[in-house]
Structures are given as structure tokens and as C-alpha cells.
Amino acid sequence: MTHPVRKFTGVIPPIVTPLTADRDVDVPSLERLIRHLLDNGVHGIFALGSTGEVVLLDDDRRDRVLEVVTATVAGQVPVVAGCIETSTTRVLQRVRAAEKYGADAVVVTAPFYALVGPAEIDRHFRAVAGETSLPVLAYDIPACVQVKLTAEHLLALAADGVIYGVKDSSGDDVAFRKLLIDLEDLQGQPGTEDERSSGSATNGFVALTGHEVMVDGMLLAGAHGSVPGLGNVDPAGYVRLTTAAAHGDWATARAEQDRLTRLFRIVDAADPDTAGPATRGVSAFKTALALLGIIDTPTVSLPLRALQGHELNRVRDQLEIAGLLPTPSP
Q1: What is the pLDDT of residues 101-135, one digit of tens each?
Q2: What is the pLDDT of residues 225-245, one digit of tens each?
Q3: For the CA atoms of 176, 279, 93, 45, what is the dihedral angle to 10 degrees?
Q4: 113 catalytic per annotation
Q5: Residue of 101, 164, 167, 286 marked active site
Q6: Catalytic site residue 139?
Q7: How far apart are CA 306 and CA 300, in angstroms?
Q8: Of 139, 164, 238, 286, which one is the catalytic site residue?
Q9: What is the pTM of this model?
Q10: Which of 278, 151, 266, 141 has its CA nearest to residue 202?
Q11: Burial 101-122, CB ≥16 within 10 A → b, else e
């Protein structure tokens, strides 16, 4: 598979999956969320990522999400679909669904639960890419799959036309910076004419950061875009940051990043004794979106829980500080 023209760049939020009180897909809320993102200038939509509770949804709900997202986006921006499963066979089933509903690319992690090493990971990505014409983006999220994708392996897969890019949610900004440098070095090599035109020498490879509070630094280092969960809540802020960076206005980019970093405090709203990392992140984003009137309820999939009481007030306070909600009159 040759690389398409680079198009998965800019701000590509991993959208939450709005749910009804009965935990079915809340279609009207999902449509409003997508319009909210598009109206604020995002450059793509990532459906069924970690923020979208992908591993907590059954296949019927995942299919419904893809159907609604692709129909609502209607080609305005690229849609990438998370095909995140424990095994190659299950991933390929989700790839078939992504193809059916018209996604523009698929996002795939290393296999998980079964303990795997580099050889199994290599076979996994090659098998997936060999069964689809859609671009495959590797998802580096070792906290969830227990293995780190190395720069050497990613670039080897890219050079062979197996993967088109990486979404880095490793939290290892040093390793991501080294990947960007290695990528720049490879793309600076002359290569053959066929390699330059096909992308087999890694031309066209996209490196996306999922680190919400480091987007300005990663763009400065050479990242091609971001996949920020907080982008559900404040897509305009990430678009302003990205636009400023594209124009070399790093002071504006930093100021916007600082504001977004303060807003990211909403993930600390939940009491840590009763809420793990997934609850703190997903529930905070959904609570904020409900307070903003974009989705109807902050319902989350079991075993996560919704925020409540003083936790809601903590989220509301940060929305007010960020200028997304009006500050109450004294």
C-alpha cells in the first residue's frame, strides 16, 4: 500500500460517545457534538478512540457511532475510526465496519491482554494493512496495551507502506521527539524516485500527539497535528493554537496552550478514591459538554461513573475560568 497525500493533520479530536440514560448511543447529542467541532474548525474527527469509550461499547453501538459520524461529517473533514481490539481477527472485523461506513482511515493499537513482543506486533500490523485499502494509523498507548511502540519499529513499518502515521498517547515526549527527529532525518535522504513518489521512504508519514498540554511544544518539534481529548470541550482553542503555530507565532500558541492546560484541570474534578484515570478523563469531558449544552447527559459506560455534586462544580469553575461559561454575577 502506498501512502496517500498527507491529510490527517491539524486538530483531530477523539470524540466522546454521548449516551442516553439507558446507555444507548445518543444520536442527537452525537450530531450536535460533531457540528460543534466542525463549526469550530477542526481538521478531522477520530471516532471510537479511548475518549470514545471504544473498548466499553459493544459492536452494535460502535457501528451506530460510525454510521452517525460519517453521515454527519459528510466528507467535510477526514474521519478516522478506532479499530481497537485484543486480537488481529477482531481488529479486522472492526476494519470491515470502518470500510462499510465510509471512514477515511483506521487507528490500530498493538494487540493486548495476550502478552506480545515485537514479532507479534509486527505480524499484527502487517496483517491488518494487508487486508484493507484504508490507511492504518498506529496508536501508541502503552498504559492500556502494556507495550511501547518504538520509533525504529514505527518507521520500519512506514517504510514498508504498512502504516501511514502514529497517534502518540504514550506520555513519553522524549521518545516522541526522537521519532520526529528520526523521521526528519529519513525524509531528508534523497531515496529513489519511486520511493519519493510512493511514500515508501516515509514521505507522507504523519506524527500526531495526543498529549493535550504539550501540543505547542510538539508542533514546534515537528508534529503534524494533535488528537486532544480536551478538544471536545474547546476545539476552537486548539484550532487557534495550531493556526498560530503554523504562522510561527509561538507566543500566541503558548498563551493558548497555557489557557488549555488550566482548563485541563477538569480531569482532576473527580475524587481519586472512587474514580480511576478513565473515569476522571471521560467523565470530565462529558460533564463539561453537558454543562455547555452540547450533549444531553454525561452518562458513561460501566464500570465508569458520572461526576456528581461538588465534582460537577469543579468542572463548572474551570469552564468559567477558561471563558467557556459566563461567570455568575456577584
Answers
A1: 999 999 999 999 998 999 999 999 999 999 999 99
A2: 999 999 999 999 999 999 999
A3: -60
A4: no
A5: 167
A6: yes
A7: 6
A8: 139
A9: 0.92
A10: 151
A11: bbbbbbbbbbbbeeebeeeebb
